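Hi X.,

You mentioned you wanted examples for the new student's onboarding notes, showing what a folding record looks like when two proteins sit in one file. Here is a clean example. The first protein comes first, with its sequence line followed by its structure tokens.
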Amino acid sequence: MLVLIGLYNQLLIMSIIAGLLYLILKLFSIATHKYFSAAWHYYTYLLISTFFLIPYYSVLSAFNTFTRKTAKWAQSPLIELGLPPSDIISTVSTSTIQISPKSHEVFSYIRLLPYFLMAGTLIFIAVVVCKNIRINRRIFIACQKTDDRVLLDILSECKRSIGLKKEIPVYMCSFIGTPLVTGLFRPRIVLPNIEFSSEELGYIFKHELTHIKKYDAWIKLLLLFINALHWFNPLAYIIRFDIDRFCEAFCDKTVTGSMNKEERRKYCGLILSVLWNVADQNTKLFSAFSDKRSIEWRIYLIMKTEKSKRWVRRAAVAFTLSFALLGTGLAYAATGTGSANAPLSTSGTANVSGLSADFENMEVGDIVYVGDIAIQRVADDAQGPGDSMVQTTTEGFSVSDFAGNQSLDKTLSLNSTYKYWFIWIDNTSSNKINVTIGNDETTQTNNFHQIPKGKYYIWSTNAWPTSSQTVSFSNGAGMYGSAAARLCSTLAEAEAHNG
């Protein structure tokens, strides 16, 4: 459960960042359409779409972790972790470092969110698969593999000219109105039953073969998968549509790159004639030649013969790199993993496997937030909670000596008065003490911690359910030290942990 919540939390961050990058890029679309090439648009939009899928910021996070551990100038862990200096650390326990409280009722709804999003993904995939099966079945019922020698000779010549050796069969179909390519492993070209001249067939074959050579079908499949993961984000649909348009324009430019002006005019005429055929047949199938909204821009790019100036090419490269860095930086900041001034914290993140590595690196005064609890390393000479109680704080339990026990269960008897708690742990051996807090599986998984040697406070940052909660201590090699817990009526008392 909590693994899913963590995964979809990252997915939502990636969805927001990729969508934001797309919107920023659209603000410059008038200028980019005028100066930058179709290839630039295609690859830049593809790069943005990868932000939906790849957590680039994790590379920066790993680098940041490495530099934090190896930087020699970071003498003080308080400065390294962005915590207050020693003269104000005494005030931390009262109010300076907090996370926003999250109620258990809200969490119960949040934990259903991954299943809802996963269901949407599966439905999206099922719809796409069914639709493609239905369309392909309708097409190939009406298809016939052609053995027209003239047509196949033109295809062979086009394959030779673009350096493609793969066997590509050609089918004729009365159901479609435009040429298209179908099939991933065994691509096939499907032509409508329209009279094309030999020259027009050459243009069509070069266009479709270019798609095959560039593995555009596989790229579109990847975009569909990204769209399925981010089905809840309307921008994921829009960017997929834009990439399809740029793919066609890039393909046009590749095909017409060596043509003279008259040949380009004829190629544009072919696009318009096929488009007219689609409108005449009122077909619902669309391909490279039937996207009406992009026709004007495609024709503009095809007829544009002058080469881009050097400053334009440099600007295009710089623009793309800036977007990549911007997206990585935004996601890095959004996850809270990269701030140099942020405390060592995994606030709101499920702690499935424990944070033993972080705990081992903690210094006195460091605080780690995990879900709705906080963990603080305290000085080795700290005494822990005494016998006297202050205000409405009351004893939860006490373990004077673990005495080598491998497991021990205690109870926090929470009620309408005492909804908060803190636990003191003094681990005197090198064996980590595994601490599990809560009754239900979800709460236990979220609150499993491996406490290394030293003295630590663990306290609740949110009111817990008014019921008895089990606190389990365990280590197969034996536990040594002591522990104590106090029940608190307010968050301030739990943070002060001075019972």
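Then the second protein repeats the pattern, sequence line and then tokens:
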Amino acid sequence: MNRLRELRKEKKLTLKEVSSQLEQNNLKISPDALAKYERGDREPKLETWQKLADFFGVSVPYLQGIEDKTTNGYSKEYIFQQLANAYKENWKDPTGNIMGGGFAGVVDAYLSASSIKKPSKLNKSFWKTNFNFIFDNPNVEHLLTTKDTYSDDVIKLLLSYAIMFNFPQFKEVLADFYKEENNKRK
């Protein structure tokens, strides 16, 4: 049996409240459908399982009742929260290798280079809309499935590198480098 009802009750939410909060995160599931998922009368698609797991901050196997460990990695919600926290506190890279004097400088430079207008309030929607690409980075993607535990500093360092590697200019440099390397091999 899945853990949807158990996790919803832990958060002291009604089916209607969960439905409403999920809709704010671009996942439309009616309270009736949620009730059917909870009872096991209906099975969500894998994409829906992942979004529900992110919402509750657990792994999909835990939510499905397959595993006892609450997480098999970090949820996207947790990673987005680390992204927001690093910006808010202008986290500094302990290795001293990140440009711009801090995380906020890296993010602001990325926004500028990508012609993205920064709103006055950086809410969860802003991070999800403009920084979802971080999950294309293999190191950040690994965080979603790892059984290892990392400090928040390590996670923030991985996020800062993922952002830097996505700079338009950096992508051009990498493309040129790989093009030159392929030409040398011919």
